[in-house]
UniProtKB/TrEMBL annotation:
<dbReference type="Pfam" id="PF03466">
    <property type="entry name" value="LysR_substrate"/>
</dbReference>
<dbReference type="InterPro" id="IPR036390">
    <property type="entry name" value="WH_DNA-bd_sf"/>
</dbReference>
<dbReference type="InterPro" id="IPR050950">
    <property type="entry name" value="HTH-type_LysR_regulators"/>
</dbReference>
<comment type="similarity">
    <text>Belongs to the LysR transcriptional regulatory family.</text>
</comment>
<dbReference type="InterPro" id="IPR036388">
    <property type="entry name" value="WH-like_DNA-bd_sf"/>
</dbReference>
<dbReference type="GO" id="GO:0003700">
    <property type="term" value="F:DNA-binding transcription factor activity"/>
</dbReference>
<dbReference type="GO" id="GO:0003677">
    <property type="term" value="F:DNA binding"/>
</dbReference>
<keyword id="KW-0804">Transcription</keyword>
<protein>
    <recommendedName>
        <fullName>HTH lysR-type domain-containing protein</fullName>
    </recommendedName>
</protein>
<keyword id="KW-0805">Transcription regulation</keyword>
<dbReference type="InterPro" id="IPR005119">
    <property type="entry name" value="LysR_subst-bd"/>
</dbReference>
<dbReference type="InterPro" id="IPR000847">
    <property type="entry name" value="LysR_HTH_N"/>
</dbReference>
<feature type="domain" description="HTH lysR-type">
    <location>
        <begin position="1"/>
        <end position="58"/>
    </location>
</feature>
<dbReference type="GO" id="GO:0005829">
    <property type="term" value="C:cytosol"/>
</dbReference>
<keyword id="KW-0238">DNA-binding</keyword>
<dbReference type="Pfam" id="PF00126">
    <property type="entry name" value="HTH_1"/>
</dbReference>
Amino acid sequence: MELRLLEYFLRVAEFGSISRAAMDLALSQSALSRHMGALEHELNVQLFLRDSSGVKLSDAGAELAEQARTLLLQAEILREEVGAKTLGTVNFAMPLSMQRSVTSPLIAEIVMEHPDIKVRAYEGINNVLRETMRNGLPDLCVVAFSPIASPLYEEAPLLREQLYLVGNAKSGLELDRFVTASEIADLRMVMPGRPNVVRQMVESQLRRIDRRYLNAAEAETLPLCLDLVVRGLGYSVMPFCALFEHPLRSQVCAAPIRGMVLTWVVAINRNRMNSGTVAIAWRRMLRLISMRIDSGMWQGAELIWRPQDNSEDNGSTPLSRIC
């Protein structure tokens, strides 16, 4: 089976249309249809269900899509490591809250300094990122600490971050004044639904004082949470990095919550521990995070990452000695 056919298959699955996928791939529609027919013939299964609106994956097609992504990732690893390729691909999985403080500037820096590196970024709330890790897709991840670590990844503590109560401009919250769980108990909240690590921390704190979480609305993205807070629907809880350079920053106030701290870990795919490309990405990430914290721009954050040995990183240090 040609890997090229799997790439074509995933593109059709992504677009839900052979004609749009063909346009994106710079192929004729008839040529792409022949390729998909050849793949179905080779596997002896129907991969797509066709109707007037386009194509959808069959059960067999959905299973192939999951396996194909992993297979193409492994092929990229072989091209980089066995083929002695200097630079290759790096796949990030990053929390939405770090989009402006870390993810966007990090990707821009890597692409500008190393244009031969191909970058893909997965972004989402923590449980979504953990799901991508279960499939082994990302190479380098920042996720909230979990007592159940993924067997596919090497994890190490990265930073500890204070959580903040966020309200609109009329809320009177102040960055230099802590609020307590008992104060939060009287507020209607706008947060993601379960399972969300910050939501669980808030509910746990409230249970300790025999109070219940008051729900105003469940919003599964940070931008939506902030927009609803600005509109006065309720309050939210998030790390300070979520407010970094956010366009709504001037329209909200925040206060640290006593006793509520989130620990982030860095997780590196065990299959990519010796990748020079991933090592470049990791060093850039660590440098950027350190700079943000040292400058005071990342309020309430403390870098807790420590190397496992004292050897100097000369650019060739395997990640197994970094993380």
